[in-house]
Amino acid sequence: MRLLRTLMPALFLTACNSDTVEPEPSGPPNIDLALPWTTASVAEVGGSTAMVATGLERARLNDRLRSLLVVKDGRLVVEEYFNGSQGDLHDVRSVTKSVVSALTGLLIERGGLGVNDPIGGYLDSLVSDLEPAKGAITIDHLLTMASGLEWDESGGFGDYVQWIRSDDHLGYVLGKPLVSDPGSRYNYNSGAVHLLGVALEQASGHRLPELANELLFRPIGISRSRWEPLRDGFHNGGAGLDLRPRDLARFGQLYLQMGESAGNPVLPKEWVARSAAARYNWRFDSGALRGISYGALWWVVPEASEPLHFAWGFGGQYVVIVPGMNLVIVTTTSWPGMGAEAGAYERRTMDLLVDYIIPAFR
């Protein structure tokens, strides 16, 4: 077991005397995200070493799990890799959407576009004969999965597979009929989030990788990333980003710190709050996690004993933020070839966090 190996002797010496130790009093963390991570043992932040150890035993039974990181009170206390290493880039699938949400908030703050802007103003020059009703879909409709466009992405297949293979990624999405009034009904649609990414590129005059590096990644210390290019010259804003696990933790910590790094604003705190607020009355369960709903390209669990929100990518890519516990958790998995078992791996991975990792720090 590798819980930050250089700290192992101290961690287990403490564990022999008591399963936990009281952490030093501290307020909400507001660390400088551009600096290297500060590490600590689980015990040093008041966590249960025994419960984390049991959780890691369970983690090793998940043959698709590739990384598990935990940041508590701004310090990296668990960093485990399974058939991988710290420097590996991971294809995090729909975690991309939460990054695109952040970029949207940053452009809105700068006056580059408005949350209620119709997308037609950004896409008209790219799509011939854009139907007025589809051009009236707004940025907010895309952020909340309420475009009204017909789409079936059940299990990560269906329209997504056909869309990614298409020679016309904009045309494929906008060629779908409107089956509900925009803004009236939730329907998960990665293609619609790609439309949002294209709108951001059109509004800013920069491609998504440049935009992300300049406005988001560089200020929080992320120096390596990779975006999936598409045939039309744009990039996959729905599920096309690769990041390292430590950098995913930086992104999660930025949201925990309400958009700040060492007290300096990176992302508007109002946007962080908006992203993590449930926009729908419905709730559903996934394994041990109960009461899940949706915000602005973030999944939210507002009525949990410790409310949390998380970015969720196909097959078990997670960035989980538990604000009341000053806790950020990252998992990545090897998703290619999962097929219909992807949902089971997602539940298995999240159950590990809900049953062992989060309780270990209560």
Gist of the model:
It contains 13 helices and 13 strands. By secondary structure, the protein is α+β, with helices and mostly antiparallel strands.
Features:
alpha+beta; eight-stranded antiparallel β-sheet; 2 domains; disordered N terminus; Beta-lactamase; 34% helix; three-stranded antiparallel β-sheet; 13 helices; 362 residues; 13 strands; globular
How is this structure best described in words?
The chain is of the alpha+beta class and about 350 residues long. It has 2 domains: about 5-85 and about 245-255 and about 270-360, Beta-lactamase, CATH 3.40.710; about 95-210, DD-peptidase/beta-lactamase superfamily (Beta-lactamase), CATH 3.40.710. About 35% of the residues lie in helices and about 15% in strands. It is built from 13 helices and 13 strands. The strands form 3 sheets. It has an 8-stranded antiparallel sheet with strand order 2-1-13-12-11-10-9-8, with helices on both faces. Strands 3-5-4 form a 3-stranded antiparallel sheet. A hairpin with a 2-residue loop joins strand 6 (about 260) and strand 7. Helix 2 (about 50-60) runs antiparallel to helix 13 (about 340-355) and helix 3 packs parallel to helix 9 (about 190-205). The longest helix has 16 residues, at about 340-355. Mean pLDDT is about 90; it is low at about 1-25.
